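Deliverable D4.2, example record:
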Amino acid sequence: MSILNQEAPPAPKPKETTDYIRFEPLPEAGPTIMTIVAFNFLPNYEFEKDDGTRYNADAIEFFFGTEVGGKAYFVKTWPKTYSINEKAFYHKLYKAALGKAPVAGSKPAEIIGQGVSLTIELENKKSKKGKEYTACKIKGDAMAVHPKLKGEVVPLATLRPALDKALSAAPEEQKGDGNPF
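Output generated by the structure prediction step:
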């Protein structure tokens, strides 16, 4: 027999639904010089480890852009732990972009507009609803752009309006129900 009105834990917050953004994939895989176009800070983000345990930490995701044949293309990271630890994605990206490690007080906005070299892999995927698509996946760490190739970095002023347009596209055109990366 159960006891009526026994103490219960506080109600959990509803699970957040995530809109996954699908950008048109780059025409080719491989090393690509990309501009850091934007970032999104996610406070107290819920991460899941490989063993299924969950933990919360501040996270950050980055948007990168380039042009191929006069057309803008974008790639977005999954949320990454926001940390200046030398093993963290943010630390490596910051160092590749500015040539120096981030220190306490460094801000992600300092690397917006900077170029980095990323290795992009194209992966064929299928959403939960059965829609097939190709996703760009970043492989490995960001690398500094060789000084002789700095001219290949597309200016932020060129890419930002195209990113804003891509993000404001109709939801059915850009959002999916599965892992787009």
